[in-house]
Hints:
The protein is an alpha+beta fold. The chain is built from twelve helices and 15 strands.
Amino acid sequence: MKNNTKITNTSIESAGLPKDAKHVMAEYIWNGFDAKATEVSIDIESNTLGFITSICIRDNGEGIPRETLNLSFGNFLDSLKKNSLKRSSYTRGKKGKGRFSFSLFATRATWNTTVKTDDELISYSIRIDRDAKEQYDIGDIKSAAKPEGTGTTVKLEGIFGLTATTLESEEFTDFLAQEFGWYLLLNRDWGYRILLNGTTLHYHNLIQETDSTIFTLYSIAENSYSFRVNYIRWKEQIGDRYYYYFLNSNKTEVAKLLSSFNNNAIDFHHSVYIESDFFDQFEQADIAISSESNLFSEKEQQVIYRKLLAELRDFLERKQKKYIREQAVTVKLEELEKKNLLPRYSSSDIDVNRKRILLSLIQELYIADPRAFVGIKADLIRTYLGLLDLLLQTDRKQDIVPLFENAIALSEKERDTIRKILER
């Protein structure tokens, strides 16, 4: 049975569909997870010459309820206004544009879906052709066997401008790992996974460090709110800036906020995901939280939000210092040596000790605030370290601490560490 959308084929083409096959595939995968799937698989059929004959994206989600077709397939413009495809922390599959994105490289898309109605499983199909996207064809309803379970398979046919080599390349798998790695990690206890031609997508090679903790915060009225915080430090930059992502209890992002560590120039690639039913009352918003008024209307919510931000900043600051101490500071000291920015030392015991003390001092200052060495010309750094070395040879060594405190905020522990170095 053919049905018409409330938009023309030309209008769909001009509605801002994805221009890259990788993003098209990501949208269909997100559609599966939006339908509460725990597993999404991509199977590519190709001939011996590498030309793709079909692409199938399968999920074990809840399927597409037939009563929602007029909204999800028939009211493109209305859907687009209410659920515009936005690129935030990830490409989020949205009922609107996503179903038409196949037209970038396929002539036909067919959805075979199984849904549960009362105690019965039913199956039916939906088909859209590239040259007539203003129409969608609904197949007959059939009873489905219970062992089959619910889910949806999207079959893309008539593939053009795309070869199997592209979708089987390391670039494509890296893209999927970057796009979905965080989501699979957060849902690892429930067995979430993505399969590509039967092989599980691996993402752990992109992750250098993870940690999870729970903050319990109390409002003025002594109401308590629990926040599960998941920290990820990536091996490399994954395309997004560094954010706190606020997720509701369904792990759906409702908003995000830039962290305070975006301009540190030390390769501290991080993301922090905060899950809580505190965010359940908010709809997914195409904004970043810049003030409490954007998202929170009640004073109690504002108080909790401010407390949460303070805890998050303290948590992330500790993580950054740990990373600097364990990795980044070694890279910085090697860089200073390689570029001949340190004072010249002889091999005498006195000079060896002087160099050791200076390097220890540089290390602690860099850990306290790595920005002290960012954006400064090499000649100035060389002069700066030379003067510091001269000061270390006088009886005014202890004046170094208040001197640095004028430019760097030192904790009491950091002050004590620097004083002990100077006492050597």
